[in-house]
């Protein structure tokens, strides 16, 4: 929300509010036009507009009216075009090349009548066409206008609402859970991208299977020597031929992509620039709530989970005497592991600085997830009817994306490790899938096998992930500081070399680091508890979900954790504060993190931040403790409570704000 283009856009909107409405109108209008609407990305544009509404930069009713008016008039123009030039539309590009676009809209219109005007407005695939079809079929104008107007208003509200809600809650959420929101949003975007890639690739092949089959058959006739080996793939007498052709074409494409990536990595001699950039980005997004979630997801690629599902599947295939399927299943897993291990040994790719031994190129977990889920999809997909055959491949893509993203977040692999692993896994399962489909024509009842495979995977995941998360996180925790500072030097002037603020891109999250403590925290904690302060354990997901419960008193609502250099606070202490002018609940908070340097006498060093928090309820949906300016009020409370430690207060050379410096009682000079 703080990128340069957002700042320039909000500045422009503030200076030109009427023109902003015209821009919103234009977006909705163009999206509704019969041909132009195909190319207008209305959803992301109106999402951004809604976010600006929520942030207060655009008047909400004004934006809603502009979007609804644009959609209504755009539909009206499409209706008029269909009424005047209806018969000629079918001979006009792109409808001459893709007649199914108009056919789908016409089918909907004939089935639903006037209701199709409302339904089509919310279905992107037919939205620009149904008004034109209504005109082509001479629907009376009065009968058309009312549903079109209602649909336009509802569409504008629905498309603006997600961004509006996000913008309205962003200020509160960003102050305490911005990294978590970014991680979850990025994960959802990755899953949506993978879902779309698998789905539309499948649909493209399904639509072009006959053409590919005909071309392949023609090629085998022109090249009899080589063609006899490929003839089985394109034999029109075999119902499996379209699927085999699809697998073969995918095999060639994935082979080219994988060898291109491998050649690029070998030529560079190390990770690519994009690998390092994404690794740094993911490291900057580390936060305690996302850490445990991602560790659990990453553990789904462990042997305890994949091995359980694989073993259950193998036992079932053997029990049902599916010898060929069982042999291919064993080959998929065993040779997948062997080939991946050989590649990892042969390609000496430097690991990320956060990755321990055992993590390299390609990613074993991602490769085997791709192989296990992918080859299982090959086993059962042909037993499913029609369009349902894509579902096992969608599940395979989502499972691989979840595990790959989690490992990328934790710093276990470079991005190229994950892409290389998934491409290699696809390459191997396609080759094996071609062999299996070419030799096995006998079908079998796949429903029990599907329930057993997916059920055993979920059961193993639910058992293994909570137990493995902590150990996996320990492997990827922030490295201990390498810089050693003399204890006396720190006490005298070295403290000023430590950061005075959190290193954050958003100014609202660059909290002052106004406290430095040398020594164990137990004496400090005891002194604060004697003054009425209390320790809050680090909030977990159960506590975070409890933020949505209005029945929980404010005093029991948890303060969400924050990070410094990818580490959560070691100690979080709270104290009740007097209510503000709005009579809202307030708290004083002290957060302490490990410092990025170590003292030569072995004493631990801590950086702290004092804050006053107020309870915000964005959209009345959740309770969030949010920092607010307090003119040093929380700082004074902490300083007074720790007066027995003889703290020293001096302004930080970078921020000019006072920093409290002290040694705990167990540390003597």
UniProtKB/TrEMBL annotation:
Cross-referenced InterPro entries: DedA-like, PAP2/HPO, PAP2/HPO_sf, VTT_dom
Residue segments, region Disordered: 645-669
Subcellular location: Cell membrane
Residues making up the signal peptide according to the UniProt record: none
Chain ranges of the Phosphatidic acid phosphatase type 2/haloperoxidase domain: 358-432
Topological type in the membrane: Multi-pass membrane protein
Domain spans labelled VTT: 40-163
Transmembrane segments: 12-29, 35-55, 62-81, 144-168, 180-202, 244-273, 293-319, 326-347, 359-381, 393-412, 418-436, 448-465
GO cellular component: plasma membrane
Keywords (A to Z) from UniProt: Cell membrane, Membrane, Transmembrane, Transmembrane helix
Superkingdom to which the source organism belongs: Bacteria
Main location: membrane
Similarity comment: Belongs to the DedA family.
Protein name from the UniProt record: Membrane protein
